[in-house]
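User: Fold this; tokens only.

Assistant: Input:
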Amino acid sequence: MVGDLKYGRTVHSLLQAMSQFNTTFYFISPEELKMPSAYKMHLDNMGLKYHEGRDLTEHLPDADIVYMTRVQQERFTDPIEYERVKNAYILRRSLLEGCKPSMKVLHPAPGSTKSTPTWTAAPMLTISIRRETACMCAWPS
């Protein structure tokens, strides 16, 4: 799980669902957006392993699924702090080299980021685009 792990409701729900399986979690986020301790205590109580860090590339080759979240400006009271971390985790195609061929990436697609991602042709990509109440999921053929 990568990005906003503190405020992201989806990562909290996904953690609870995936904790029903023998899952090892890797939490990659800026210090300010770390996974809350209550969720880590839940994993401890379930006897599941987790690792925390800031370096996206460290555990990427070992991942089966990478769940990306966007850092959202409204979560910050200090605009300087937001500017410092808003682009901390941009997944580029070059980062996917050396990953498992079966790895799946779940990504919310570009939002506030103006740069064009270079990874969109990656075979493991799954993009979930949410606009208002609509949801579209794209899977590679």
